[in-house]
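task queued by scheduler; priority normal; single chain, no ligands, no partner chains; default sampling; output format set to structure tokens
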Amino acid sequence: MAALVKKLREPFVLTARIGPNDISYHLAQNVDHGFSEILAFEMSAAIETIHPKFKRHLGKDLLISFTGSGRASRDDFRDEDENAIYLLDLRAESRYLSGVIPSDALWALPGLIEAGHISYLVVCFEPPRQGRGIVRSIEFVSEAKLADYRP
């Protein structure tokens, strides 16, 4: 007897040109000499290609927010993981996608964007249900590499 296997649907894909972005970082020390941090990196990107099901978002801005926080002590740089995970939130009108990204990658992004090495996002996602979807992958690419991702 063959086991039933649920087939995953192919992900939907969008490409978007990165626009204005901003980063903020907050570090505080408490009375026990521990430290807490909050990092936020926000950007907008104009959607240039998207699955026909979501064509109403074509040309609209995708608002992307990477946020995270962590704690550190004097004895141990980070309480648990040296490469903390940060939340990823992508919004387009009333729909949004969410996911995670390692902090090391997040710290590198602003410099790569400013230097012009990265100018596009390629996002694979599960279709939103009731306005919420999941990011399967997000790639930050140059304009030259973008041709590899377009049909």
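post-processing summary
- The radius of gyration is 18 Å.
- Residues 46 and 61 are 4 Å apart (CA to CA).
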